[in-house]
Amino acid sequence: MAEIWELYKAGQWEVPFLTFSIYLFILGSFIMYLIIVASRSNKIKKERLRNEYSSLIEKVMSSVIFEDASFSTIKEDKNFLVLFDTSFFREVLTESLINLHKNYEGIYAKKLEQFYKDSGLIKDSFRRLKSLKWEVKCRAITELAEFNVNEGFDLIIAFSKARNKTLKITAINACIKLGGTKSIAYLVEHSDPIDDWMQLNIINAFKKHDIGDTEGIEFLLESQNTTVVTLGLKLIKELKLTQKVPHVAQLAAQASNTVIKYEAQSILQTLTI
Q: Of 23, 34, 115, 223, whose CB is crowded by the most CB atoms within 10 A?
């Protein structure tokens, strides 16, 4: 190092610079290697724990669904209680609850929703809404919507104006599930452009959640946001809402935007055939 410093002082900076760059590259590569090894090790550990938790979680979920076991009864098991104090176990438990809830209806689904609330897992979801990471917020929104937590509607709708597109569409889809046509009022006032990908997701959300009461969808045609108007027309077409024909006809006659007018006329022809 002393020799390198002497070369630097003598004005021959190229050799010290190259030597320093090599050392820096080697150090950076070593640090990157350690990060990759640590990350891989952490993933392996989590996968091992997930497998270990699965048998206990299956037993707990079976007792909840088929034996009417409450959380107060389940937490009497000290082994369960020790694990429940760890965040990763609660994450795995929540994932299992969601997977089960998607496959059950009626009273069984209600039991799972009650367990989600009684166990305090719902608090974890609300806490995740405050995360700075958009993917964590998306997970929280999905959890609250899956378990029909209507108390979260107002918080979730705020994310429908987020900059991140995935977070935005996740919030809108969740509000459609929770609020049905109640969410339309927020879509009407939505000022940001809703691109084709987002429109497709919203339409699929209405289809998926089988929104029986379609009253209010015609209000989308009155929005000042042309992309919202387009969404309304597509919803009317995809859901075959022939009762909305008068509203589409009025839009076709009065719209100043030629693209909207053409789309309205086209859908009008499709619905009246």
A: 115
**Token representation of residue 191:** 């000022």
What are the tokens at 264?
């309205």
- Cα 271 from chain centroid (whole Å): 34
Distance of alpha carbon 96 from alpha carbon 64, whole angstroms: 13
Alpha-carbon span 271 to 27, nearest angstrom: 68
Using CA atoms, how far apart are residues 49 and 51, in angstroms rounded to an integer? 5
pTM for this entry: 0.76
Query: 158-202: per-residue pLDDT in tens?
Result: 898 888 988 988 998 898 888 877 788 888 888 888 888 888 888
pLDDT digits (tens, 9 = 90+) for 101-160: 999 888 999 999 999 999 999 999 999 999 999 999 999 999 999 999 999 888 998 898
DSSP the chain: -HHHHHHHHTT--HHHHHHHHHHHHHHHHHHHHHHHHHHHHHHHHHHHHHHHHHHHHHHHHHHHHHS---HHHHTTSHHHHHHHTSHHHHHHHHHHHHHHHHH--HHHHHHHHHHHHHTTHHHHHHHHTT-S-HHHHHHHHHHHHHTT-GGGHHHHHHGGG-SSHHHHHHHHHHHHHHHGGGGHHHHHT--S---HHHHHHHHHHHHHTT----TTGGGGGG-S-HHHHHHHHHHHHHTT-GGGHHHHHHHHHH--SHHHHHHHHHHHHHHH-
Distance CA 213, CA 181 (A): 7
Tell me how crowded residue 10 is: count the other CB atoms within 10 A of its CB.
8
